[in-house]
Each structure stands twice: as structure tokens, then as C-alpha cells.
Amino acid sequence: MKIKDIGGEFGLIVRIKSKIKLYSKDVVAGIGNDAAVLNYDKNNYILFTTDMLVENVHFSLKYYSPQQIGMKAVEQNVSDIAAMGGIPKFAIVSLALPNDIDVEFVDKLYNGINEKSKKYKISIVGGNITHSKEIVVSIAMIGFAEKKNLTLRKGAKINDLIFCSGDVGKSSTGLELLKHNIAGNSIKKHLEPKSRLDLARKIVKVGINSMIDVSDGIASEIKHICSESKVGARIYADKIPLSKNTIIDAKKLHKNPLDFALYGGEDFELVFTAPINKLKQLKKHDIVVIGEIVNKKYGTKLVKNNRKLELKIGFVHFK
Amino acid sequence: MKIKDIGGEFGLIVRIKSKIKLYSKDVVAGIGNDAAVLNYDKNNYILFTTDMLVENVHFSLKYYSPQQIGMKAVEQNVSDIAAMGGIPKFAIVSLALPNDIDVEFVDKLYNGINEKSKKYKISIVGGNITHSKEIVVSIAMIGFAEKKNLTLRKGAKINDLIFCSGDVGKSSTGLELLKHNIAGNSIKKHLEPKSRLDLARKIVKVGINSMIDVSDGIASEIKHICSESKVGARIYADKIPLSKNTIIDAKKLHKNPLDFALYGGEDFELVFTAPINKLKQLKKHDIVVIGEIVNKKYGTKLVKNNRKLELKIGFVHFK
Question: Which of B21, B125, B138 lies closest to A114 in CB terms?
Fold first, then answer.
């Protein structure tokens, strides 16, 4: 049986989760969130996450500078910590590198890692280097979240509004441009994605119910929130934030920019839900309401031209 | 310039370390130990480590069962935590897997991970799955060490005795047998190495000055301790513990078993140093004195047949 026969990576995660045992009462949240949540002290949790970039899966040296690879490796982990409402603090870096790689490549990769570590005040405290056929950059990160600010995928409540932190679809539009050798402003959004740590910290202080970062397209992310929270969702196609550049660049590709937003990945924007009484405070930030949480029995729907369509899952490995 | 031109992985680590900045006063020890040490509470530190297994570098599917790969991935991280005097507690698992891999392979890999997690009471709290050409298993682990038990590489003092926790060279002897298609008992030592967590916990309570786990051969490990502690060392060839199986199997390979012990890797035994007044207490455990710490000016020497030889470095990636 192949992984695609059990629903790709998400089916595999469910399967793995069912076989895992926990041996500690200090695990507040394990598999199934952007980061694990562990007891720390009276007021704070430890957040623990990892993300891996694999050559020719997550990046190609045809498009990416080594510095951009390093930057992205840090940003995607920061985005996981941000999505939990926390602050990143420590990281360890595992590199697998081809035997004949230049030292200058590693220098530049670390320039990218160090630039982002400086931005977020993350201390690189260790790592591991080995050789391989293709480049692998795996970062594990520890962060902290105040108990009152911790935000999981599973907290969404019926009648919550669903928010999106900013333009989505930009990264996958950029990737398609690169693949088709077409110029456009979206390319930089793909090569240099930025997590929304600052915004996340502000909105968790307002008080929100659930959150996730957009790594596989907002359709997948909303389905994750609904599945963990045991609710349904309705989102509105005409509310989904698309930048002018995404629209222009999707047109060059003869594609619907909405599809990139729904089913593309790696935007590192945030999708979150909050009760309507928080709307005024949240609206002070540059965020958009894209739908609402409904009873589970209504499923997860996209409202488009007054029709309700089933939300599909976005990017999946092993499909 | 290639990595081999700057001394392989160890030269690269020095280069990376020189460019890293720390942004937290809570980093007690960073790059250059088996695990990073972070402040936790009044009496305890957090330990944070990672290790990666790459197909055809660290294992071949010709020799390894998926279960053995999972077991080894956990053991090598536990060994890092053990070498710091701590206890492992939480792990996250990153997998990169070829697209056409069978679900049964992943099941068996996780059987190995879960078996070892149960043994050591480690909770798997998260992870990441992606695809790749070759299998990569990267585990990051969090553990804890009581402040009084924390043991670094850098604590060795002149006149300390150097101890080894058990038979070394067994894993690399087994690997050579596999490569030459020769049978022998060392093979299982290579495929199923065991960390020495229990022993480590006992000896740190006696009080030792420095410790490291044997992942690249004891020559390398002693050089790491000496470099971090700014001391020299003298070890005695006839004191280095070799099992009967290692001697028998090395003979089949027409190799000197001592070379496997000095320059082979992945035994996951412990090398540690302690003052002579601890000898009586330490001798209650099944460990061996293999040498002594001396002034840095005497270098790191192997005494063999009354001759003093320079200790070379063991296994190095990118050489």
C-alpha cells in the first residue's frame, strides 16, 4: 500500500498519531498543531517545532540563492511558533550537504539563517552536519507562549469570524512563474516569504479562538481548523485577499489567482478565528474577514457566485 | 573552496560557530557539545539536540530493516542527552521519504521509534513529513539535566583519569562485515546500537568532570574533550576495551580491531573523565580506565608498545 492510498501525508500523520504513546503529563498539545506545547512554568508553555527543506522538493538551486534557502528555513519555523501565539527563542540546524559543495555555499546559507535569527532574536544553539546526494536543511525550534496567549487549531467556535492576515496565493503564483520562466513580482514572494510573528503577537493579545499558518493553501488550513475544532466553515471567494501582483501574474499564467490562494502553499500568512465582539479591536490591524465558523453538519464550503462549493484539500505530499 | 579544504565537518562547525550570534542569556552551552544547554528553572537545565540519518550515508536498505532505522534514530539522540548527564523527554520526528514508499515501511520505521520511545519514556510530540529521493530521518529531542549533574565536554582537568563505558569498535567492525558480505556477531552491534543512558545517570551522580558519547571513534572524542577543556591526553592502546567478537570479526577482515575502536563510529559508548578520588565509586560500574588527562603541551597521544603516537581524528564527513 502506498502513502497516496491512505490520503497522502495527512493520512499518514493520522496513522502515526494513532500509534504514538505519550509518557509525560507535561504534553499539553502534541501531533496535529503547528508546534508541540509543553508545560514550562506557572505562566508559560514551551513550544517545540521542526520544518525541513529538501532540494528539488521545496527549492531548486535554479531559482534560489543559498541565502534565500537559509532565510526560508528560519521563516517557516518562526511561522509555526507565531501560529501558536508564541515567540521563537532557540534553534538547532541540521544540514545534509553533497560532498562536493563549496564552503561559500554554506557561508551564504548561514548568512540567510543569521539574518533571520537576528531579526527574530533567535539563538542558534547547535546542529548537525552530514553529507547526502541532495541538500536538506532541517531546523528545530524552541519558543515560548504565555498560557493566556496560547492559540491552538482546535479552539474555533460556531459563529466565530474567520480572518486572514494578508494576501494569499502569492508564493505559489511566484513558483509557477519560475517554472514557466515568466517574470513577475510574485517571484520574490515565493523566494523570500515572511512569517507574521509581529501580527500574531498582537492578535493573540486581543484574544482569538484558533489559528494556523498558511503553509498548504487556505483551503487546507481551514479544513485543519475545522477538523481539530469539530466545526464547519463557510468562506467567501470574493473576500479572500489577493494582491494586484498575484492577479496580474496569475493572468500571465492563464490561471485563476483564487486557486493559488486556496490550494497553493507557503504564504506564511495566518488564518484565525475570533468571536464577533473582537472585530473592532482586530480591525485595527490590516486583516480581512473571509468567512465564518458554522456547525460541523454544514461542512467546509466556499461561497462563490452565490453557489456553495466543497472546499478541497490543498497541496499534499505523496499524491 | 571545498569543505574538505577546511578540515571537513569539524572545520565547518568552527566556521559556523564563529558567525553565530546568541540573543539570549539563557544559553548555558551552545554549538560544540552533544546537546545545547538552556536555562530552565532553579535546579534544572533544558537539553536540546538533533541528529539526522540519511539513506546510503548512515544506513543502507540492503542491511537495515525499517525498524532498525527508527531505533537507531532515537538511540543516537538519547546518546547525546546521556552524554550531557540528562534525561530525554520529548522528541519531534522529521521524515523525508521517496514518493513510492510503502506505508508498511513507515509503520515499521515507527515501530522502531515507538519501541525506543517506550524504553526511554520519550513522548513523540510532533514532526514533519515531506518527500525526497532518499530517506532522511531527523529527530530533535528535548531533555532535562539537574544543574548539579550537567556534564560538558569542557570540564576535563589535568590528572583526571579517562574512562570508557564499554567495548568500542564494535559498530564499525559490523559495518565492514556487512560491506564485505561476511557473517559475524558485530553486525548486530552496528544495526542496533544502544546508548548508555542508565550508566550515564549513575556516573554523573558520582561526580565526573567531562563526558562525550562515542559517535566518531574514541580518538575523535578524546580530541574533542581536550580541545574544549584546553588539556592534553594520553591513552593506552592495551587498555581500550575490545570485545571478543570485535577481535574475531576484525581478524576476518584482516584489520586491527584497535583501529575500529579509535577511528570507527557509532558505538554510543561514553568517554568521560573524573579525578582519581572518584575511582573507587566509579569502579562499581563496568567501566574501564583508558588513560589520563595531561597538560595541553603534551598533546593527545596513544601509548602503544611503549611508543607515543599522535592521536588522529576519526570519521569525518566531507573528507
Answer: B21
566518531: which residue's cell?
A: B216
Spatial distance between the Cα atoms of B229 and A53, rounded to a whole number of angstroms = 35
> What CATH number does the domain located at A153-310 have?
3.90.650.10
The fold of B152-310 is: Phosphoribosyl-aminoimidazole Synthetase; Chain A, domain 2 (3.90.650)
CB-CB: which of B41, B121, B128 is closest to A50?
B128
Q: Assess if CATH 3.40.30.10 describes domain A3-146.
A: no
What residue ranges do the domains of chain B occupy?
3-148, 152-310
Distance from CA of A21 to the nearest CA of B (A): 7
CB contact under 8 A, B114 and A21: yes
Of A41, A57, A126, the CB nearest to B35: A126
Contact flag B20-A114 (C-beta cutoff 8 Å): yes
The answer to whether A272 touches A208, Cβ cutoff 8 Å, is yes
Q: Count H helices, E strands: chain A? A: 10, 13
> pTM of the predicted model, to two decimals?
0.95
| Chains A, B: CB pairs < 8 Å | 245
Element (H, E) at B260: helix B257-263
* CA A231 to chain centroid: 21
Binned at pLDDT 50, 70 and 90, residue A315 comes out as low
> Alpha-carbon distance A47 to A37, whole Å?
5
* Cell, residue A199: 501580527
Q: Are B156 and B212 in contact (CB under 8 A)?
A: no
Average of per-residue pLDDT across A151-165: 97
